[in-house]
Amino acid sequence: MAFKNRKGIGSKLFGKFSLRAKTVIFCILCLFAVILVLKNSYWDEKNKVTVQNSNKNVTQNTVIKNSSTGENGDKSDEERLEKEYKAAQKFFSDKEYDKTIDKANDIINQNDKFYKAYNIKGIALCYSNNYDEGMKNIDKALELNPNFGYARFNKALAYELYGKYDDALDWYDKDLEIEKYVWSYYGKASIYGRRGDISNTVKFLKMAIDISPDIKDIARDEKDFEPVKNSSEFQNLIK
């Protein structure tokens, strides 16, 4: 009842206005309605953009965070495996070949793509009189990383250990293609020394000495140089 009374009073008041006044009032109401619609449209669009930007930021932050977490995880795993690999290297340096192989196997079980483990396992097997398995592991390291210089060197060393000197020289050269490794020069000098090739022995031994002068002390007691040791060229080089 109250609502009907208010409606009736409004109709009577509106009826008192002239046609011109009514027209003005109608225009004002229309203008107000247009403004209200535009205002609502503006805020709706603004809220939409804000939500889109918010979602974009959430997505970007999530990607960055996940990427960072993955990278840190990978880095952490790599550091741990590198630490274990150094332990395997220490076993090999101490001539504890069984422990070297066991440690390398542990690493491979954790990550079968860790090429360094195959390499150290391979050369330890070769020193343990298991040439075939040793070479398979060194070749596996090279399959995973063909430019791993230490594996190229160890393949040459394994050939040398088993008297395959031409193959050894070839692989020492392959190592020297990617790194100037002192022991590859020394390995070549040793093979030429066994063969009594004074010129090549001195040539490659000098290259090794130029990198590390301490090589002189090792060369003086090296049995591989017995066939050339009394030559003046050799003696002048190691004095």
UniProtKB/TrEMBL annotation:
<dbReference type="GO" id="GO:0046813">
    <property type="term" value="P:receptor-mediated virion attachment to host cell"/>
</dbReference>
<dbReference type="GO" id="GO:0009279">
    <property type="term" value="C:cell outer membrane"/>
</dbReference>
<protein>
    <submittedName>
        <fullName>Lipoprotein NlpI</fullName>
    </submittedName>
</protein>
<dbReference type="InterPro" id="IPR050498">
    <property type="entry name" value="Ycf3"/>
</dbReference>
<feature type="transmembrane region" description="Helical">
    <location>
        <begin position="21"/>
        <end position="38"/>
    </location>
</feature>
<dbReference type="Pfam" id="PF13431">
    <property type="entry name" value="TPR_17"/>
</dbReference>
<feature type="repeat" description="TPR">
    <location>
        <begin position="115"/>
        <end position="148"/>
    </location>
</feature>
<keyword id="KW-0472">Membrane</keyword>
<dbReference type="InterPro" id="IPR011990">
    <property type="entry name" value="TPR-like_helical_dom_sf"/>
</dbReference>
<keyword id="KW-1133">Transmembrane helix</keyword>
<keyword id="KW-0812">Transmembrane</keyword>
<keyword id="KW-0677">Repeat</keyword>
<keyword id="KW-0802">TPR repeat</keyword>
<keyword id="KW-0449">Lipoprotein</keyword>
<dbReference type="InterPro" id="IPR019734">
    <property type="entry name" value="TPR_rpt"/>
</dbReference>
